[in-house]
Every structure is written in structure tokens, then in C-alpha cells.
């Protein structure tokens, strides 16, 4: 077997060699536990298919569940070079969109919901009259994170494997299947657990090869390996009684870990601030993550609140790159090389060569040699920029939910006890089992150290037996409630809550746009405190069920305007019933922080009018946090 570009990388174990060395037409299912070297094995498998089995890069398709996994696989393939770096790696959702775009007709599939795209792509593939011809050329399909295939995505992959006679390498771990909640109907959710694994074994009953990767390469200490002994029990967990028991056993194991200590104590806080130790604080819900983030900001502890995978932000440096030569229509390689060293905020993983290839792939000009800036703007507006450009940059301290930490690893992990499974929230065995697997995922993220983090009372969502921080069913946002059923005390701020179709300007001062862009670039940073302040010039619209206008204020400067989506959700959140008309609007939403200054696309004419050029690209602030409502004392309660 050729070694080539992989000389100097860890030697493959016998288990990994068994996976990598199978012929291209082999139907293979690999069970890979947490930290088992799955990504390295898949990269070597793809390289072997090209180098040893003679497949072209177009013969292979790699599908995975998350954008993070796509980024990691692409980065590894690119790092090691070789022909395998050109193999296509994509998410199920992106691949379905490509299938539909090829067969689009007059339908704008990019504006349709993800699940609808998946269902329609399944129909296209199932019908040989509409299926793309290039699918007939596939000789091997690699599918990663298969444990997360549920509902429509599971059906898509089943149809693909039924319709095309080719080899496959399918990798997953039932112990890390934590996305069953995406199936809304309880009766369907109950039968989804391990359903794809069962289908695969039945459909390929005589041919399927099953292998396993059992060695853990991540955990380097006994304490980091502590939860691994529960792997078998977690995989086999089905009933509520089993889930309740195993969840309690995992919590007992967590309780046996050292308490990290009181972060309000200076020397303990200093330990958390040690940037040389990549650290994560993991909790069950995003509501808890928002509270922890608020608490740490109050203690002066810089950190990163991990976003949901679909909540992407394009970094500010892309706007700077696009406007390096005002009025230019394209960016040549030479000009890119000249400018690259001065770009601020570029992650180490995205080196100059990789950045150029990524940008060229999504916005090359007709000659294929330069970046067409207009096409780059259109890709930004359509949400088609590659994940390498939109991933959150590394940070030494990450606050995340159990779910969002899946696939990540850290030297040190602090886990917040999720508490017992509440039967008032969870009644189905499958949902209780999801809770078990999520806690198991959290407790297997550490390379070196794992601690228990006990939160102070004010940072917990429950108070005196009442859940005062919970999701608002009307908006889907986390919110602050009071002891009285009608009390609303605050609301989560989301990406998309700042208006971006036109660039922000000082009210009544159109010539302020350029100065404000410079202010965002030089004076506003991630973690800075901001607040949304009501503007009386934009009243509530009861006919349109829309709240009043708000501006985003940084120190004493207005840097953005609240979007209609925010105003609609604020109205819905404050409604007591369908017939109730909210009258008392918060004067301010405080407790917010800047997540990132992002590059956005808007109306070209609006940008031109205020001196920002013809591209229709500019900077905008993205706030985050669980805001607190503050009312003017002169307002009626």
C-alpha cells in the first residue's frame, strides 16, 4: 500500500489497515467509537481508493452530516496533498441542493427549507428518468456520521445505495447518535434509533462487511477515559428505564470528577484564562450556555459562545479583501498575494494557498484565473460561501451545548451536571436515550482533564422550583420569564436580528456610513457590551404584529438597526394571547455582547448611495446574548 504524502503521520493500527485496504467495490460498515481516529482512517481510505484502487476523484463521493466534519475532512485531504485532495466532500444538505439545482427548472431551491430539499432530491434520485447521469459514474461512496441519519436524510441515503451498485464505506457510532429530536413526530422518533444500521444489515445481508475501530487516540489520561467504559451500555440503551439508569450512572461518574472550583476566586479564574490549555465548558441547553456566557463576561473572562452549525457568519476580512481596490471588478492572484499578509482575523488553518483555492472555487471569473468580485458578492448573498470561510475561529475557551461540541476535542473540559431526566419533559424512551448519548458525548471530549462545574444559583435556569429561563414556544427563542405567568423579562438575540439589506448610517446622516464602517472595523470587537435601544420614530404596528424599532448601541454610538425578524418575534413574545395587543415595550435590551463583526450582502444601490461602492458588500455587527428588558420608569406598566 502506498504511503506517499502520509509519511510522518501516525502509523495505522491493524484495525485501521483493515478498513483502508479493502477493495473499492466492498460494502463496508465501520463502527468507530469516540476518539478512535475515524477522520484519519477515512482520509487514508480515500487516498487508497485513488492511489491503490485506481479510482479517479470523480468516482468518489464523500457525504457527512455536519459542516464541521466537512471542513475537517477537506483540511486533512488538502494538508496531505495527493490526488485525493480533489475528492468531493459535502454535507447531505448541500449535495441534495446540487441535485435539485441541476434539475431545477424554474424553482429557487435555495429559498426552500432543508427538509423539503432532502425529500425532493430523494424523488429525483429514485427516478432513473430524472437522476443526474453522473451518478452512474460513482464507484465508491463514503458516508460519515451515519448515526445521525434520521428521517428524510436516512431515506435519501437508502435510496442512493439501493439505486446505484457501487462500493461504500459507512462510518458511525450509535453511542453518539444525538439528533433524533429532528424527527418531530413522537411515534416516528421512537423507531428511528439505529434504524439505518438495521436497514443496512438487512439490505446487504449476504455482502456487508462489518469492522470496528476500538482504540481511543483522544484520551491521554485515566480521567479523560473514565466515561469510555459506558460505551456499550450507551449504544444499547433503548427503554426509558435503561436510559434513566445509565444517565444516573454517567452523572455519578461526573460527580466523582474534581469540582473545578469557584470561578469568582481570582486564582481559579486565572487557571481558566490560561490560553495554553484549550478548554470547553459544556452544558445541556443553549439557555444554560447563554447564562454561563453572561456570567463569565461579568467576571471578565473572554470566551467564545459556540453557534449552531446553520448560524454562519462571514468574517470581516472578506469585505476588506473585496474592497482593497475600490471600483475593481476582479482580484488577481498577484494582488491577492500582496494583500493577504495585511488581512486581520484570518485563522491559521486557512493559509494563503488554501484561501485562494477556496475563493476561486466559488467565484472564479470566466478565464478561471481571477476572483470575480460580483460573483463573490452573489455567493455571499445566497449563502453559498464554503464552510472554510464561515467557521468560527479557534478560541482557548469555548462555551457550548453537548450537541454543538460533538466532533470537537479539548485538552480540558468542564461539564455542567444536566440533572436527572425530568419526566415532565421527557416521556419516551428514545428521547431519554438521546439525553444519555448527549451526556456521553460531553464526557468524551477531553484529551487530558475533565472536571465537574457547579454553577451558582443565579446562573441556573431554575429558581425556587420554577424554570425561569426556557424556550418561548411562540418564537423558538430562549427567554426570561417571571414568577407570574404573564411576566416577560428578556429574550435571546439571534443572528439575523440586525438589518443588513442597507448599510447602517447615523439617523438622518447618510454621509456617516463610511465613518461607521471604519468604526466597526477598528473600534468594535467580539465580546464588547452593546444594547438595543427603542426608537420612538418607529412605532409598533399592531396590524402587522410588529414591535417598535430599535437601534444597536455600542458605547454611545449607534451601529445597527434591529431587523423586522427581531421586531416580529418581540411582538409575539410579549403577546399574552392571540387577541392581546402589547402596549408596554422595553426601552432597552441589555446584557448583549458582540459576537462578531461580519461581512454581509445587501442592496447594491443602497451601498452606492452612501459611498460604499457598487459591490453591495459591507460590515455589520452581530450581537448575541440573553437580553434583559429594561423599561423607562415613565412608561405605564
UniProtKB/TrEMBL annotation:
Binding-site residues for ATP, renumbered to this chain: 32-39
InterPro entries attached to this UniProt entry: DNA_helicase_UvrD/REP, P-loop_NTPase, UvrD-like_ATP-bd, UvrD-like_helicase_C
Stretches assigned to the UvrD-like helicase ATP-binding domain: 11-406
PANTHER family in the record: UVRD / RECB / PCRA DNA HELICASE FAMILY MEMBER
A Pfam family this chain is assigned to: UvrD-helicase
UniProt keyword annotation of Nucleus present: no
Signal peptide (UniProt feature, chain positions): none
GO molecular function, one term: ATP binding
Name the UniProt record assigns to this protein: DNA helicase
Superkingdom, natural source: Bacteria
Organism in which the protein naturally occurs: Streptomyces lydicus
Gene3D superfamilies: P-loop containing nucleotide triphosphate hydrolases
CDD domains for this protein: DEXQc_UvrD (cd17932)
SUPFAM superfamilies xref list: P-loop containing nucleoside triphosphate hydrolases (SSF52540)
Alphabetical UniProt keywords: ATP-binding, Helicase, Hydrolase, Nucleotide-binding
